[in-house]
Every structure is written in C-alpha cells, then in structure tokens.
Amino acid sequence: MTLTTPAPWPGGRREAERRLAAIDPIAYGATRNHLDGAVTRLSPYIRHGVLTLAEVREAVFAWLREHGYGEPGRQAEGRRIAGKLINELGWRDYWQRLWLQLGDGIWSDLEPLKTGHPAASYAPDLPADVAAASTGLVCIDAFAAEMMATGWLHNHARMWLASYLVHWRRVRWQAGAAWFLQHLLDGDPASNNLSWQWVASSFSSKPYLFNRDNLERYSRGRYCRTCPRAGRDCPFEASYEQLQGHLFPQAGHAAAATDSPGPASPDPLVQPGSARPAPVLPAPPLRRPLLWIHGEALGPANPALRAHPGAPALFVFDSELLAGRTATTGGRPLAPGRVRFLRQCLAELPLRVREGDGAAELLAFAAEHGADGVVTSAAVDPRFAATAAAIAERLPLQVLPVEPFVDLELPAAQLRRFSRYWRLAEPLVWAGFSRRARDSATAPPAAARPPGR
User: Fold this and answer.
1) Given this model, what pLDDT does residue 275 score?
2) Is the pLDDT of residue 280 over 60?
3) Average pLDDT across the chain, whole number
C-alpha cells in the first residue's frame, strides 16, 4: 500500500508568525474536529517557545478587536466566537502545570484503568506493523505514516490512533506515547502523555472509543473509500454498544467515551508527584552574563534574550535526550525531523549550538567567555531543574519567568481536572481581553502620541 504524505514543516519564528497571522477563530471553532478543518498548526512552535501561549492569546484578542468585537456591546459575542480557541490554549497551560506537579511520574498510570482488563495484560511494546504503517487498515496506516513523515497529526487522528493501539491491539499507552514523542514536533510528556492516559482511561472515567461512522464523519470518508477491509472485516464498523461489549466485556455497564474531540473533565484526584521545578530566582548582580537558551524558549519572547541583548548565548543539544535515554522522550531517540525542526528554530536566534552534557557545556562556555553567571528562562521539563542545580553549584544562576498564559496560582487539589482549573482561569483570561479592548479604545491616535511612545 502506497501512502502519500505532506512535506515536513519548517521551523523558526518567521514560519510561526506566518501561521499566527492566518488564524481564524470563527473557522477554527466551526471546523476544528474535521481533519481538513481550520486548525492553527501552531503547536510545534508553542511547544518550543518560538511562540508563547501569551503571544497566541494576544493574537486572538487582536483579531477580535480588529473585527469589531472589542466594543463593549460585542465582547460577549467575541468571547463566544473565540472561546474554543482560547479554551484549547488553556488545555496547554493546564497540561504544563500538571507536568510541573508530577514530574517524571507523568509516565505512570494516574488512576486504575476502567477497561476491565488488568494492566499486566497490555503488551509493553509497539507492534511492528503499526510502527511500519502496514496494518492493512488504510486509516491507521495513513495516520502513522503522516506522523512519522511530517512530525504532525491532527488531534482527532491522534486520538483514533491511540484508541486503536490501546483498546484494539491491547498495548500499554506508554509504548504509544513514547512513539509519538519520538516523532511529533510538538511532543512533550505533558499534553502527549496525559492525552494518552485519557484515551486509555487511566486519567479519565472511561476509555475513549471511535467507530467507522465517527471516522467517516470527520475525515469525509477519505480512508474508507479505498480500504480493502471496509464492509468486510473493518474492526471499527459497529455501534458503540457493540464495541464496548467486544472490547471491554468485564468493564460492567459504564459506556466508553465516544465521539469526543478532546479530553473530558471528571474529578478524581491527581496525586502529587516528586517534581522539583527550578525556582524563578531573583536577579544576581551580573556584569558578564551567559545566556542559557533551552528547548522551551526558542523565540524572541525569551526573557533572557530580552534582558541581555548581545550577551553570549548557548543552546546545548542534550546528548542523553538525542540518544533516547531520558523520560522527556520516553526512552526513544529524537527522530531526524524533530532535530531538523529544532535546528531551523535555532538558526534564527543569536546563539551558539553545542552537543553534550548540558551543565558541563554551559559551564565550559561560561569559562571561555569569562561569564560571572548564567541567565535563563523558566522551564517545565524535570531535566531543566537537574541542569540548573548543577550550574548553580558553580556559578550564580538567574531564572527569569516567562509571561504566563494566565496569572493564577493553584494548589495541587485544584488540578484534579481541567474543569476546576478552567473555572478559575477562564474569567481571568477574558478579563484581560476586556481590559486591553478598553485601553485600545481610550488610547490616542498614533499621530497624537508623544514621541517614543
């Protein structure tokens, strides 16, 4: 079977800004669940800080103001129009908060499975035919091939592929999550692993399923028309009740989650993990700082670059991560497409690039430049905290905060589910929109403003 896929994506700020300028909140809200819908395709740039969540949030707000939704009488309509896009940015922020809380514990089941099958009955490894995109199911093979070729996959296709792997093939979600992290340009253990756990039912009240009707509806039938198994022995051609009985005969009467394009919000407690994020430290009096640029802040909004323009800066490709010996990629080496994307992002920044042990390379670079300390930006990955601790033993270290998506401090109990987080975060996000719309309406015209403002 021959499958054609799009070309790989370019990395870097210029491409990110082009895509950001093309967002359409109305089209996004109406079509985002369809594989050919108007999704933003910004996730790889957000994941690596080429764009920050705050920048994307402000771009959505600017779009609303430009289209007349900043007026007091139209703000509620603007909130309705762009609500889903802002909500999806909230999901990203929520996942990151959970990663900070759980650390590498994000690779463990957060709750017992609700499938009726013991955890030990799931295979630990990715099946060879799935990894080779040769299952004979046109949809599944197309999803696998697109992800491996381009480093991106529509969220609905990710969920279908994950559901097939976990529930039809009975494979541990960790195997699929690591496979995704190897290839996906936007892959990080937060949104990736927790979404896999939601599908598997170790972070939700029930497993996620799909059937052929669901697949055809959101893919416009493109796969079923050419699949030799359609109408003959398609494993998805059944009602949800039939699939539930076939896949989870011991699970009781609870129905599986179906037809949902994203995680739901039940409320079991997420237990705190052992994560120890590096604190945001006050500024030491540095005269010759070295800037440590890491993979979560590869854009001009990086506060270290803003605070010290012209200072020597270094990015280190973590040799352990590249080789697949870290939890950040689930023990798999980064695919060439991911490395290429990162290098394209780095090429647009004023920095040097090395490969090796992060702390050792940064300390050596600091010595070469006579640096009296290191300045960097806050990050979520637990490996950042370990590297930061090693640097701080030798040199003063300043960790600058990144502008948050929403200024909200939450105890662990409030991260039980997205619904609890969003109940508090959403009003604050939209209050920011109203405040900016008000400030924009009262600002003098550009020609009337004092020089330099």
Assistant:
1) 40
2) no
3) 89
Beta strands 257-258 and 208-209: pairing type? parallel
Per-residue three-class SS string for 359-374 = HHHHHHHHHHCCCCEE
* Angle 373-375-376 from CA coordinates, rounded to 5°: 150
Task: At 234, give phi and psi (nearest 5°).
Answer: -65, 125
- Are 108-258 and 289-400 equal in CATH topology? no
Asked if pLDDT for residue 441 goes beyond 80, the answer is no
Q: Look up residue 257 and give its two tokens.
A: 């989650």
pLDDT in tens, 379-428: 999 999 999 999 999 999 999 999 999 999 887 666 778 998 999 999 99
Q: What is the CATH number of domain 108-258?
A: 1.10.579.10
Q: What are phi and psi of 126, to 5 degrees?
A: -70, 130
Instruction: Give all strands (DSSP E) within 159-292, no chain letters.
Output: 208-209, 257-258, 289-292
| C-alpha 114, offset from chain centre | 25
Superfamily of domain covering 289-400: HUPs (3.40.50.620)
The string over 163-190, giving b where at least 16 C-beta atoms fall within 10 Å of a residue's C-beta and e elsewhere, is bbbbbbbebbbbbbbbbbbbbbbbbbbb
Q: Is 233 helix (H, G, I), strand (E, B) or coil?
A: coil
Domain coordinates of the chain in residue numbers? 108-258, 289-400
Q: Which residue has the tokens 């290839």?
A: 183
Around Cβ 107, how many Cβ atoms within 10 Å? Answer: 17
Please name the helix (run of DSSP H) or strand (run of DSSP E) that holds residue 59, with its range, or none.
helix 53-66
Between vectors from CA 130 to CA 48 and to CA 333, what angle results, nearest 5°? 40
Of 121, 79, 72, nearest to 249 by C-alpha is 121
First to last CA, the chain: 61
Query: Using CA atoms, how far apart are residues 453 and 443, in angstroms rounded to an integer?
Result: 11
- The string of DSSP codes covering 365-430 is HHHHTT-SEEEEE---SHHHHHHHHHHHTTS-EEEEPPPPSS-----GGGGSSHHHHHHHHHHHHH
